[in-house]
Amino acid sequence: MKRPARPRVLFVDGPNLNVLGSREPKIYGKMTLADIRREVTRAARREGAAVVFFQSNHEGEIVGALQDARGKFDGVVINPAGYTHTSVAIRDALIYAGLPALEVHLSNPAGREPFRRESTIEDVVVGRIAGLGGYGYVLALSGILNHLREAGGLAG
Ligand code: DQA
């Protein structure tokens, strides 16, 4: 019998997340992006999913990654970082990708400066996870896989 294909999830991280660990650790935690990816990869192995990671400090590159994801992935986990609050282009690219997405934030933007309360993608994602540090990414993987199983009829 043919084994069901593994769900493919793209993780997209925006600007300044490449310096996690040394960037305002009181707000963003001590985990580096590599630490987070290691935990997500471990969880993906347990859950039978395939994960791909992309990080960029450039808006246009993030737009490109989302455009390329169309038809190649089953779901997206995205932390647009500072672009969360400003980028119409990332919102438009996410809509173009046409994939269910979860928005993740290490900190809880709702409890910070007023300008962080706005998100250009909050109404085009399936849901949001915020304030749980790097662990939020592991929860986001689990959450998007559960969503895909329930909404998209993935096996298992
Ligand atoms: C962030 C929150 C944003 O407001 C901020 O600009 C970031 C990180 C978070 O993960 O908590 O760069 O997205």
Report on the structure:
With 156 residues, the protein is an alpha/beta fold. The chain has one domain: 3-Layer(aba) Sandwich (Rossmann fold), CATH 3.40.50.9100. The chain has five helices and five strands; from the N terminus they run E-H-H-E-H-E-H-E-E-H. The protein has helices spanning 25-28, 33-47, 59-69, 88-97, 135-152; strands spanning 8-13, 50-55, 75-79, 101-105, 127-130. It has a five-stranded parallel β-sheet with strand order 2-1-3-4-5, sandwiched between helices. Helix 2 runs parallel beside helix 5 and helix 3 runs parallel beside helix 4 (88-97). The protein is globular and about 55 Å long. The chain starts with 7 loop residues before the first strand and ends with a helix. The model has no long low-confidence stretch (mean pLDDT 95). The structure holds 1,3,4-trihydroxy-5-OXO-cyclohexanecarboxylic acid. Residues 16, 79, 81-82, 84, 105-107, 109, 116 line the site of 1,3,4-trihydroxy-5-OXO-cyclohexanecarboxylic acid (DQA). The site of 1,3,4-trihydroxy-5-OXO-cyclohexanecarboxylic acid (DQA) has 10 residues, from loops.
List keywords for this structure.
156 residues; alpha/beta; Rossmann fold; 5 helices; binds 1,3,4-trihydroxy-5-OXO-cyclohexanecarboxylic acid
Given this structure, which CATH class is correct?
Alpha Beta
Secondary structure class reads alpha/beta
Largest beta sheet, briefly? 5 strands, parallel
| Structural shape | globular
Which ligands, by name, code or SMILES, are bound? 1,3,4-trihydroxy-5-OXO-cyclohexanecarboxylic acid
Q: In sequence order, what are the helices and strands, one letter per element?
A: EHHEHEHEEH
Proportion of residues in extended strands? 15-25%
> Kindly state the mean pLDDT as a whole number?
95
Rg over alpha carbons: 15 Å
Q: What is the second-level CATH architecture?
A: 3-Layer(aba) Sandwich
CATH superfamily grouping:
Dehydroquinase, class II
Alpha carbon gap, first and last residue: 15 Å
Total beta-strand segments = 5
This entry's quaternary arrangement is single chain
